[in-house]
Amino acid sequence: MNRRMGLRLTWAVLAGAAADLAGLGLIAAAAWLITRAAEQPPLAALSVAIVATRAFATGKGVFRYAERLTGHDVALRAQAGTRERLYQALIPPQRPRHGGADLLSRMVDDTEAVQDLLVRCLLPATAAALAGLAAVVIGLTLLPVAALVLVAGLVVAGVALPAGTAAAARRWSARIAPARAALAERVADLVHGSADLAAYGAGDRALARARAAVEALASLERRQARVHALALAGGTLVQGLTVAAIVLLAQTAGTDSVATAVLALTALVAFEPVLPLAAAGERLAGIMAALRRLRDVGSTPPAVTEPATASPTPPSPLTVEIDDLVVRHAPRVLGSADVAADLADVAAEPVGGPERAAVDGVSLTLTPGKRVALVGPSGAGKSTLLAALMRLVEPESGTIRVNGVDVRGLASDDVRAMMTGLTQDPYIFQTTLSANLRLAGPEADDEELRQAVREARLEEWVERAGWDAELGEDGRTVSGGQLQRLALARALLYDPPVLLLDEPAEALDEEAADALMADLLDVTHDRTTLLVTHRLKGLEQVDEIVVLEEGRVVQRGHHDELVTEPGYYRDLWESEVLTRR
Ligand SMILES: Nc1ncnc2c1ncn2[C@@H]1O[C@H](COP(=O)(O)OP(=O)(O)OP(=O)(O)O)[C@@H](O)[C@H]1O
């Protein structure tokens, strides 16, 4: 927290405390005024109390307004700062530890916890402590033993009860968080899987499971609400007992009626800011869990380490040399990190043993204008190799050099400016078709856009739909083939010195895929390209074909050589030829 925030927070605390003190003063002055007035003294004897009562009444409103204004100002600023830091923590590619929904909840709910920490916990607790202190001082001046009773009551209601509610909330959240996560999963299944559930008549069963999850959560929440209500009732009981004890003590000590009234009413009012602390204690448990989750996102290490001082980007033309590269993915994490954080003690467990290397000693050279095709069965490590080239994963060993410069010495953004292209899961944004393309070329003119669209064989659709057609989130309003071609057009528009293409013909029908591959092999002529593909037709045009299996290069060469060698390539080629007949 910087100095200005600290200052704003101090003002908010002071305003809150002043409002509570004014409330206390108002009751003390009013109690004195009423009881003294009953004794019918001359009016002059009451004038100070009358003015004080008015001043306290006005002051209470003004200070409360000031507290709300400054308190919310400081809390909203703190929340905005937390959100900004979270965004910044998310910018560098990370190991995928949190899913989209989980991150969204951290972004929205957990950052609100920062606001609640200040507005609902820290400010009220400080103001309540100051008001309590003032009430005790008033008590000490009138009847010290009553002040002691007041201290005891305030400590029970303001410290013991909130500590109890915080502990209970921690225990309850350990039971409620998994129930809530289970319900969220059931609802997500119902929403996203509605078409499949309807197709197989499984809707009723899924609904019954969701209802059971609702019931389980509701039952836990009802029990938690009972504990909450008991705690609040306990606070009010302590308040009543304290006031009764003070009145009794005052009467036993023979205190006059004016002082007794002041003592009793001051004690009553001193509890006002203290009683909500039981609810604040309960909220505090959730807030601490949210802050832990935020820290967890902030502490997620970036997927790759940036150099302390980045080397300058080598000038084109570029030669990329991959030498004995080994890439191993981090073990997958069991369950939602969110739930794990809520349970606090349940550490996120890696599933299974250490992962086998996804890329295991691959060497490959891309000279300017050379086209290399990477083929291999699913899970062979093709996309992982592309991810290593784009600096999205850190290799375990081996090197990638561009014109002799190790990519680890370059800023990862600079590496991606040199080597990038079509990724395996392209994302289509909820905006117009042309804006989706311009993502890869904000400066591109209309002719460049049209050329990229032509090269990706997207012309017909663009003509039909129009450049301003609004596309749905994640490309939900476009077909799989259109989505793939749009992403390809993006890559072609960006036109990096080394073009990486991950299965460009994926999700297209045979004819469209053949046509796209033929065009692609045309447009990549003389472009340095690394092409991951499952289709072998046309690969006789590329300079080298590398066959990967279980992360290792098992065959490499030209199409004509590979179709004569027994192995994955020849088998795939034969089955492709057979299906084309
Ligand atoms: N983010 C990840 N975390 C952990 N393991 C991963 C991750 N991504 C891929 N893997 C694993 O690494 C191995 C190689 O995966 P990769 O996606 O590179 O294969 P691929 O050859 O591109 O497969 P496909 O042709 O199906 O796309 C697989 O065993 C896969 O399960």
TrEMBL record:
Instruction: List keywords of the entry alphabetically.
Output: ATP-binding, Membrane, Nucleotide-binding, Transmembrane, Transmembrane helix
ABC transporter domain boundaries: 341-575
Q: Where is this region: Disordered?
A: 298-317
> Where does the ABC transmembrane type-1 domain lie?
11-271
User: Is Nucleotide-binding given among the entry's keywords?
Assistant: yes
**Location in the cell:** Cell membrane
Is the keyword Oxidoreductase in the record? no
Please report the record's description of how this protein sits within the membrane.
Multi-pass membrane protein
Q: Which domain of life is it from?
A: Bacteria
Q: Where are the transmembrane segments?
A: 12-34, 40-57, 117-140, 146-169, 229-250, 262-285
Low complexity: bias regions: 299-311
Q: What broad class describes the main subcellular location of this protein?
A: membrane
Q: Which PROSITE patterns match?
A: ABC_TM1F (PS50929), ABC_TRANSPORTER_1 (PS00211), ABC_TRANSPORTER_2 (PS50893)
PANTHER family (alphabetical) = ATP-BINDING CASSETTE SUB-FAMILY B, ATP-BINDING CASSETTE SUB-FAMILY B MEMBER 6
UniProt name for this protein: Thiol reductant ABC exporter subunit CydC
Origin organism is Nonomuraea guangzhouensis
- Kindly list the organism's lineage: Bacteria, Bacillati, Actinomycetota, Actinomycetes, Streptosporangiales
